[in-house]
Structures are given as C-alpha cells and as structure tokens.
Amino acid sequence: MKTKGAILRELNTPWKIEEIEIGDPKAHEIKIRMEAAGMCHSDHHLMTGGIPMAGFPILGGHEGAGVVEEIGEGVTDFEVGDHVVLSFIPSCGKCPSCKEGVANLCDFGAMLLQGEAVSDHTFRIHTADGQPVYPMTLLGTFSPYMVVHEASAVKIDKDIPFEVAALCGCGIPTGYGSSTRSGDVRPGDDVAIVGVGGVGTAALQGAVIAGARNVFAIDPVEWKREQALKFGATAAFATVEEAMNAIGEATGWGMCKKVIVTVGEVQGTDVDTWMSITAKNGTCVLTGMGNMMDNQVTLNLSMLTLLQKNLQGSIFGGANPKLDIPKLLSMYKLGKLNIDDMITRTYSLDEINQGYSDMLEGRNIRGVIRYTDADR
C-alpha cells in the first residue's frame, strides 16, 4: 500500500515527508494503522549520525501506538482491531536473553539498525521509485502505517489514549526502569536525575514511586526544572556543580545512592562529573545515548575502586516489554503514573521538524505526532 513517512536521505538534513510503499505482512508479522508516535531524542541521533543505520534512506520513529489492521500467517497473539504499543526492542521470548529474564537484550535487537525484517531478511518498506527504506529499530513510527514482527508489538487495553500509549514504547519504560530496575532505587535512597526531558521525567517518577527520600533534578532549562518539581522532585538545579553543595548538605555529604543520567546526548567527558555526586557503593546509571563512535571517557579509576562505585549502562530501562508496558499503563489508569502531563504538545506529521526544534530548544518534555485521515 502507498502511504507517506518522515524520511532522512543524508546526515544533518531536515526530515522530509515522502511517499513510501508498505508491503503486506508475512509470517509472524502484523500491519498496524498508526495513531500516535512519540518524538524521542534517539531519532535526532539518526540525523546527526550518532546512531548509524545500515543505509539510507531512513524512516524515523521508534515510539508509537496504533490498531492492528491485518495479520500474517502464524500470528496467534493478535487479532484485527487490537490496540498495540510498538516496543522499540522486540521480545521473542525464546532466545537466551529472553529466557534469562533480560528481554530488553533480546537477540532480535542485533538486527535493529539493519533495516531488514527479522522474518525473512527482506525490506518491507520502499520509496516511490522502489528503493529499500531502513526503518528505525525495524519500526518506523513516523508513518501512518507499518508492518512489524509480532515480537515488536504489545497488546494494550482499548480505553488507553493512543498518545499516552505511544510513550510506553520507549520513553516511559526506559526512564521508569532506569530508576526501578537498572538503578534499583530503594526506599530512603537519595537520587539525582540528570536531564529531565521525557525519559528523565519518567525516571523521576520511578524514583518517587520507589520511595526515594530526596530526588534532585538537574537540567539547564529553567522550564524543565519547574516541571520536575511538579512531578515530585525535591529540588532542581541547572548544573551538577550548582547542585553539589545542596546535595551534600541534604545527604550529610554522603551524596546520592543512585544517579540516573538521562541527558539527550551523553559526552564521555562528563562521566566523572556524574560520578562525583554518586555515593560510596552507589550506582550511576547511564541511560542517555552518546555517539556510537565516541569511546573516550573521563573517569577517576582510583576513586571508582576505593569508593566501590558502580557505573551501569541501561537499555530500555532493563524492561521486559511484554510484561512491563501493560503494567505501566495499568499504573497510569489508576492515577499512579502521570503520563498526560508529560505530553507537552501534539503535532501533525508535516510538523515533525518543528517538533524536533521544540525538543532541542527545551520547550517539550515529550512531543507527540497524532495521525489523522489527512496523513494517510
């Protein structure tokens, strides 16, 4: 079928809305009519080359929710009409990682940037002139239709707003899990959240719900610091340096048991700064993405050893997509997780470049594309 999508044809150029051709679902695949897509910083990394796809053109988008329109052979967990969230990391349930309980490291993840469908290693998306298109994490939510492997979809309740559901494909479980799973925040812990955009605000809520004593939000944007206080932060600061004394005084100079780093772009030169507010035997969780070509890190190795600190990477917040996405949405329905106020503004697909400009300028916690019939 012919539709359209937000395409990148080369680095450091704006998104361009183009006509594309979406193929039919093959074995273990489903076709989805998209209703909403979140605009995550990771898709901006496609534009800069920080996340290198296997080729061009690229169809962006890895947060989304929609309705199942067609199912392929062998699909048993979904029916036409089901509402689904697209999980940016698939969960096959059969590989060693899934069996070990770390579904966020599913072996299917090794193919996420290759563009080829995991079912048969062919392309489901093509340009109007027949050129293969590489969809972000085998999804491409910046299009009103998509065909994906069933391992990349999670069935949800039909009474959940699509724009809320979309954020649970990446930002919410990534942030929330960075505190509750990867960070293992415990009651009484003092926690710092560095960067309070979409992922950081979810991490903040995770720390509060887990029972943190103090939650210090750190972000250079004043408006985001104000929002962080509304989401439960104890105090908010523009920089780590500004926060240092206040954190020290509040913790008896023990500093933070957990530091969750959710900045839009991680710089290796900042790692030791984040470790400086991490307590003895504490953990600094790196959730934000750096450039994949960057392998230079500033870190005092002696202090890492002598104070027994931990530096922990985190992908998808350590989440099990099939389990955690429905749980987080049930918390939303009960009023225990505030996702509504994280959605700062909705956009049409044609407004995607404005949405990313707003994100980079710090005007959004999360922008969401809301599809209408005009997009299809």
TrEMBL record:
E.C. numbers: 1.1.1.1
GO MF annotation: an example: alcohol dehydrogenase (NAD+) activity
Reactions the enzyme catalyzes: a primary alcohol + NAD(+) = an aldehyde + NADH + H(+); a secondary alcohol + NAD(+) = a ketone + NADH + H(+)
Cofactor or coenzyme needed: Zn(2+)
Alcohol dehydrogenase-like N-terminal domain boundaries: 27-157
UniProt entry tagged with the keyword Oxidoreductase: yes
Gene3D superfamilies attached to this UniProt entry: Medium-chain alcohol dehydrogenases, catalytic domain, NAD(P)-binding Rossmann-like Domain
Entry's Gene Ontology cellular component terms: cytosol
InterPro entries: ADH-like_C (IPR013149), ADH-like_N (IPR013154), ADH_Zn_actinomycetes (IPR023921), ADH_Zn_CS (IPR002328), GroES-like_sf (IPR011032), NAD(P)-bd_dom_sf (IPR036291)
Record keywords: Metal-binding, NAD, Oxidoreductase, Zinc
Top EC category: oxidoreductase
GO biological process: formaldehyde catabolic process
TM region positions: none
Residue ranges constituting the Alcohol dehydrogenase-like C-terminal domain according to the UniProt record: 198-330
Family membership noted in the UniProt record: Belongs to the zinc-containing alcohol dehydrogenase family.
Protein's name according to its UniProt entry: alcohol dehydrogenase
Lineage: Bacteria, Bacillati, Actinomycetota, Actinomycetes, Mycobacteriales
